[in-house]
Amino acid sequence: MNTSMQPPPVQAECHDTSEKIELYENYGIYIKPIARLNITIQLPPNKNPGQTISFPEIVDKLKQLILPEEFIYLRVIKSSLEFIRLEGEVENKSSFKILLSKLDNVTIKLSSYIDVLKVRAAEAKIVYPNRHDWDSFFKDSMVNNEELKPGERADTIHLTDLPCKWFADKKNYSQNTDVMLIKPNEHILREVFSIFGEIRLIDVPILNNCFTQLRRQSAIEVIASTGMLNLPTFEAYIQYKDYIGFVKAMDTFRGMKLLYIDEQKNAFTANFRIDFDRTKHLSDREIKKREIDKLKAIEIEKIRNATIEREKEKENKQKEITSYKAMLDDSIEDDDDKKAGMDEKSKEQRRREREEARRQKRLAKKQHEEERKLEQKIAFEERKILIAQRKLESMRLLEELFNRVKDNVEQEENEKKQKEIEHELQKRQAEEADLEMAKKLKMEIEEAELKEKIAKNLEKRKEDDEEIEHFELRKDTVIQSDIKSPKQASQDAVVLPPRAVLLSNPKVQPIQVKPTLYDDEINHNENRSDGEIENVIESQNTSASTNTDSASN
Questions:
Q1: Which among 294, 277, 345, 339 has a CA at the least distance from the CA of 138?
Q2: Cα(467)–Cα(544) distance, rounded to whole angstroms?
Q3: What does the alpha-carbon distance between residue 243 and residue 8 come to, in Å, rounded to a whole number?
Q4: Which of 99, 215, 224, 350 has a Cα-to-Cα distance from 398 of 20 to 30 A?
């Protein structure tokens, strides 16, 4: 069990596979829920300066509390004068509640403390991206809500700490193969992760031939730098064609770890990490950059190999020339000795002198040749560096040129869109002005009609008032006639219609009754019945209505 402050192990043995969920059974790959908890031990005030806490003792106490369960690992994630916080992981999540009941709100006693220490435990929150994270991340890249290109949207998952051996082709490796030489198989990786949706692209950097040349790291250095344990691991980028495949993959691996069961039924788990691609690794721009880097590395390698071949050819030719010259000198000197007829002793001496002179000459020539080669090598390296710098500058210049062209095109498109927006805005403003003018004209027409109607009503009311005034004048005239002398009253008698009739039809004329010479006739007129008066009034009304109808026609 790991009980240090180091990161948790990437891989560990698994003794209970009851909670496994099938991912791809043909390759023995499953997933399993992560059962991780945080344990906080509250420390009492430290009254004795220099007092220390024994971490192994704390671990032993916690192990005794959860028996018969065991921790896969237990590590300190934070330590202060007030508390110690640990993170641990157990085999199954089904026993999680029982473990929490055993650890939460309990006390432990350490030998270095007089007081008991209170222990709190809770389920650890696993850091994992959600939909809001990738939506907010790619929101800044969206322009006018247009669909983004592949690799620049939420469609690629980034997997790290995947064990190479679990995704390797077993046919290409034997049991005695060094684990450091085992590499994953892209076809197997595609088969496993295609269950979530159709895959557009997969990139495994460790399988790239240019990977080691660009990074200049061996497999062991890569493993050590990433904190991998036991077996070498790799990273992979998987891009789905549809957004739903990406979402399914992210949701499936939430709170999960990989489980692998080999042919011998041995089970292992791996705490791999999964995230959405934040570097746009599989976008067209990044792919082109990697292709350029790969071409540069291939070109440099070709130049290096060609230089080595040329150097070898030159050395071989030089050796042949040197040996041929030595043989020629020896044959010339032997001919001279024969001609001179010298004895064996002088010949031996001359031969030694010639060998010494030849050796000195070879040394001088070799030294001169080495100096010349060194100068040529330095000049060649400088020339190679200059060529590489020029190529790099040309690539940068082309990239800058393309970027400027792209910026100009984008600027023209933005200006065009801005002009379209302004034109649309002006058109909308003109339409609003026309609508406002139409509303204003309609209101003026309605106002004129209303004024005309009010004027008509006022005129009609004025006429009614004149008629009422005329009626009042006639009424006053009748009243004044009533107060005349009896003789005159007898001469000019006027009979008024009833008040209800006058109010309903003000044009009804009063009935004048002329006096007679005889009193009985006067009395006869006075005693005229109301029925006769009403008949007279009715005839007047009929004549008035007839006149009104004719006037209206």
A1: 277
A2: 14
A3: 32
A4: 215
Extract the tokens encoding 284.
Answer: 């067209």
Among candidates 506, 276, 289, which has minimal Cα distance to 395?
289
Q: What is the 3-state secondary structure (H, E, C) of 339-367?
A: HHCCCHHHHHHHHHHHHHHHHHHHHHHHH
By DSSP bridging, strand 35-42 and strand 29-33 are: unpaired
Helix (H, G, I), strand (E, B) or coil at 2: strand
* H-helix or E-strand spanning residue 32: strand 29-33
Amino acid sitting at position 62: L
DSSP sequence for 65-95: HHTT--EEEEEEEEE-SSEEEEEEEES-STT
The two tokens of residue 87 are 């993170």
Nearest to 69 by CA among 101, 38, 42, 40: 101
Asked whether the predicted pLDDT for residue 485 surpasses 60, the reply is no
Kindly report, residue by residue over 421-469, the tens digit of the pLDDT: 989 889 988 999 899 999 999 999 999 999 888 988 998 888 888 888 8
Determine if the peptide bond prior to 163 is cis (ω within 30°).
no
Nearest CA to 30 out of 265, 199, 206, 228 is that of: 265
Radius of gyration of the chain (CA): 57
SS3 493: strand
Residue whose entry in the numeric block shows the structure tokens 């010298």 = 342
End-to-end CA, the chain: 117
Phi/psi class of residue 380: alpha, beta or left (left: φ > 0; alpha: ψ in -120 to 50)? alpha
Backbone φ/ψ region at 227: left (φ over 0), alpha (ψ -120 to 50), beta: left
The token pair that represents 245 in the structure block: 């495949």
**Model confidence band, residue 341 (pLDDT cutoffs 50, 70, 90):** low
The pLDDT of residue 296 is: 82
| DSSP letter, residue 4 | S
Q: Which amino acid is at 499?
A: R
